[in-house]
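Task: encode each sequence below as structure tokens.

Item 1
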Amino acid sequence: MRTELLEAVAQLITIRSFWLRVSGIQHNQHYYVSIGGKVSQKVCRCMTLEVTHCRGHFVVGHQWQIPEPELDKAYSEIRASDADFGRRMRELRPSPKDVEMLISHATHGTIVLELSDDDDFVPTICKNKE
């Protein structure tokens, strides 16, 4: 995924999410992939999401690293079925729904962003209740 597109996605998540922020897009991590029946280890860039507001059983500070190959795969699969998604992403103008779909698909439904559509939305950062 182009760095500019990754930055646009990260900015939208950080601006429009009430419970998550992107704490980095340049973190490198080992990623295991199966090619021709063999498991290989690769190093890839990851997007790191961090919980800023308690939600369900996720506590403040919890992090996920989403490998770039998973983001690329999700992007390709969604683009194949939604031409407008591909156009908006190419133009670096993803909608909140585009980003929600991308992250949900890349994390196999583990992360549901629920981004705000409100242009005046201001995220709240809270601490866990003791």
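Item 2
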Amino acid sequence: MWAPPVFLDAAHSGLSGRIGRPLLVVGLAALASATLYWRAQSESLEVAETALRDAQRPRPVIVERPNPAAEARRRWIERELNHPWPKLFEALEAARTPAIRLNSVEAATTNGHVALQGQARQLSDVLDLAERLTAQSLQDVTIRSHQPLSDAGERALGFQLSARWTPIRVQGGALSVGGSK
């Protein structure tokens, strides 16, 4: 089988007008698109390199100076919360009898002072409470005041007691509750 040779002479055959110009336009469009894509990738690469350089640059360390007042307040709160408050209230509850009604309890951890205010049926109930508090590891239990009250026709006695409570005492690294005996 024999085929005649094909001669492509675009200038003389008229192909340049029909196919040449559209191919030229498509080629130029592809070149412009590739150039724009390359520029976009170059810009994103520059942004990433700048971010990497910024991330690797050592930053100055900012040291906050402690506020002495805030630090003292934090230590005080920590000390207050570390006291065994349940032990004090358990001791008070164990010493209380049905004839006694405690209205207020004020405890100061700085000096171990406990102030109690309440009502009793009679003075002997208050004296009994003072003895029971001493048995519950409170020291120097003192009746500060007492006065008769009239509560809706019932006779009652208002009283104020004070005592010393040593909430935490360190013994060989271990914490114990109570006063020194």
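Check on item 2: Confidence is low (pLDDT under 50) at residues 169-181. Strands lie at 100-108, 113-120, 139-151, 154-164, 169-171, 174-176.
End of task.
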